[in-house]
Design goal:
Length: 662
């Protein structure tokens, strides 16, 4: 890994490019990044000429000389692949990468990659112990990436990509700490040896994962082993004596580790993106380790949790929430006999924290279905739960997908046992949101396990190493179809050249409306609108004509929801047909005469409206002479000319009423 270039944090029009040079001798000056598309050079960006413009994770130069530089490239096209070359003067390309920007929309469910359009696909992986990997992880990923139908757009690496606290034997050489006047353990507090140890850990992991990191963009979260076990709490003395006994050393190690998380993994506390206009899929990524507090109060900053809760409450399409640890877990992860010791080792997980109550309630009240992605626990599985809420017929569905590990840490084997997990969500009755009935958790597919060495503590039955892909496509009515695939990393590839496929599972995320809109006319011709909220309360009736314009006395009305706007069609006693929209923020468009763009068909007597799942409003109405008419309002606001339904469908006499449904 003398040189490396990696893409991070893609959007539909930009990407962050990270370059590093890891040289034992001298800094290479005169580097640049070249961006190409389809063999055509688009731009070449010079990097800082001297080392002063590059960052050194850890804060000070050391003998390993790891220099990094990151920049954002914008002005890119959505859903487009780009080649990146890291160049060094006349010596040419030193490293290369490839990435895709986020697509502008989700493809339909029948997209397979053969026509150049494939489902929006994310890879999910965590827990990579480099000493376990013989190159299989990057090899299996390259095989997957070579298949157009399976290739991920984006990789979500959700923690423990690097184990800087392993093996524990790094802390066995004694020395005297002059400031604390007692024996502690090597490496020294704030020493170059500590920085070099962490640099070496990152170099080993990134070098082995180069074939994965450089193909496709990445978003990385941190977890405890990017710092130390159960960070920021004090680890046990038996395995990490210096970290246990010296707060000064813990502070020093935290500072260096945090710089590597931020400057190498490019981890952000929170971020989000949305696919589609209007939104089809919304994704929120939250790091629950880097700002975690000691003990069990907060796993993230209050301001960051505020953003997460607001995102959940404001979902107008299905959501994906990416976290460093699972939500379906008992309050503590307890490992007995880990690494062959008699000690009980605890890593506090999300349900152990006071903050979790707020997150759990926000998930229960989300207006759309949510899928949680996570890692950490050294097993892989899919779980789902249905939450019934007061006043709603259909349940809100919450899914959770876990992928862990990619590289099994020796002595930390684990597997999924449903008897050891919670049976309901929320597991703690105090976390139940008002008006919500806790749901039973359904454990579906689980990654296969191996027997291991049952007579050696910590080396017994364990989940096979794997990563997963999640492919998202657009279903009818704004729903999102999700296909989860579990790929095994240490078994031989299949006959098709792909990694060994353990199983696939499919489910649907729904974009059901979160509220009920009601519109009606009164005897005096007024048109009124109200909302029934999910808690059973009602908004006060509002006079639609005050907001959208007085068009006379209304005698009929119908409504339909499209893209989070309420479309209202009404008929007046003068036989005119009118249309308006109530936008998501509560404002109204002025009434428009439908017959102007769609054609005058006489005096309308009744109307009905419906949506077909593709953003088009279908309007049907009867006229005083008994004819039945139909038109379409397209997504761009234009109208189709009214068509006589009885022409193609048959004359059945004089129609008085009408109803449509998408």
């Amino acid at each position: 890994m003398s040189f490396m270039v990696v893409a991070h944090h893609p959007t539909a029009s930009s990407v962050e490019l990270w370059a590093t040079q890891y040289l034992p001798n001298a800094f290479a000056m005169g580097m640049s990044l070249r961006i190409s598309r389809g063999g055509v050079r688009l731009k070449e960006i010079p990097l800082p000429y001297g080392s002063a413009g590059w960052e050194i994770p850890g804060g000070e130069p050391n003998d390993l000389l790891m220099y990094t530089h990151a920049l954002v490239v914008d002005g890119l096209e959505p859903g487009t692949g780009y080649d990146v070359e890291l160049l060094h003067g006349a010596s040419g390309t030193k490293a290369s990468a490839y990435f895709e920007t986020l697509p502008a929309r989700l493809p339909p469910t029948d997209a397979s990659g053969g026509n150049g359009e494939r489902p929006f696909t994310m890879l999910l992986g965590s827990c990579y112990w480099v000493a376990r990997d013989d190159g299989s992880v990057a090899d299996r990923y390259r095989r997957l990436y070579a298949d157009p139908s399976e290739r991920p757009h984006l990789k979500m690496l959700v923690g423990d990509q690097v184990y800087v606290d392993q093996p524990p034997a790094i802390t066995i050489i004694p020395w005297v700490d002059p400031s604390e006047k007692r024996w502690v353990m090597w490496p020294a507090i704030g020493s170059q040896a500590l920085r070099e140890h962490i640099t070496g850990r990152y170099r080993a992991s990134w070098e082995r994962l180069d074939g994965l990191l450089s193909l496709g963009a990445n978003i990385c979260l941190s977890d405890d082993h990017e710092f130390w076990n159960d960070f920021p709490n004090t680890p046990i003395y038996a395995l990490w004596p210096i970290l246990n006994s010296s707060e000064t050393f813990r502070n020093s190690m935290e500072r260096v580790c945090r710089e590597f998380v931020e400057k190498v993994q490019r981890t952000r506390a929170v971020e989000s993106f949305t696919i589609g206009t209007p939104p089809q899929l919304s994704v929120f990524i939250a790091d629950t380790r880097m700002h975690r507090e000691r003990e069990t109060e907060r796993f993230m900053l209050d301001a960051d949790l505020d953003r997460l809760v607001e995102w959940l409450a404001g979902l107008t399409c299905p959501g994906v929430l990416v976290l460093g640890q699972p939500i379906h877990a008992k309050p503590l992860s307890i490992w007995k006999g880990l690494f062959g010791t008699d000690n009980t080792i605890t890593d506090r997980n999300l349900p152990a924290f006071t903050q979790f109550a707020r997150l759990a309630q926000a998930l229960q009240l989300a207006p759309r279905d949510v899928c949680v992605l996570s890692g950490d626990v050294h097993f892989g599985r899919v779980a789902s739960v249905e939450l019934f809420r007061e006043g709603e017929i259909e349940p809100m569905r919450l899914f959770e997908v876990i992928a862990s590990p990619m590289g099994q840490l020796d002595g930390a084997n684990s597997y999924f046992d449903p008897n050891e997990g919670p049976s309901t969500f929320p597991a703690n009755p105090e976390h139940t949101a008002p008006g919500v009935t806790p749901g039973s958790i359904s454990w579906t597919n689980t990654v296969p396990t191996l027997a291991g060495e049952p007579n050696i503590p910590g080396h017994g039955r364990h989940a096979m190493e794997h990563f997963m892909t999640l492919a998202f496509s657009a279903a009818v009515n704004g729903d999102v179809r999700v296909r989860v695939s579990a790929w095994l990393l240490r078994s031989p590839p299949g006959e098709d050249g792909l990694p060994d496929l353990a199983w696939r599972e499919e489910f649907t995320l729904s974009r059901r409306p979160s509220v009920l809109h009601l519109a009606g006319t009164t005897a005096d011709g007024h048109l009124w609108h109200t909302i029934r909220y999910r808690d059973g309360s009602w908004q006060q009736f509002g006079d639609v004509e005050e907001q959208a314009g007085d068009r006379g006395k209304f005698v009929g009305v119908d409504v339909a929801t499209i893209d989070y706007g309420l479309h209202v069609c009404g008929v007046t006693d003068a036989g005119r047909l009118w249309h308006t929209i109530r936008y998501g923020i509560g404002t109204w468009q002025q009434f428009g005469d439908v017959e102007g763009p769609a054609g005058d068909r006489g005096r309308f007597a009744s109307v009905s409206a419906g949506e077909t799942g593709v953003g088009e409003l279908h309007v049907a109405g009867t006229t005083a002479d008994g004819h039945l008419w139909h038109t379409i309002r397209y997504r761009d606001g234009s109208w189709q000319q009214f068509g006589d339904v009885e022409g193609p469908a048959g004359d059945r006499g004089s129609f008085r009423t009408v109803s449509v449904d998408g």
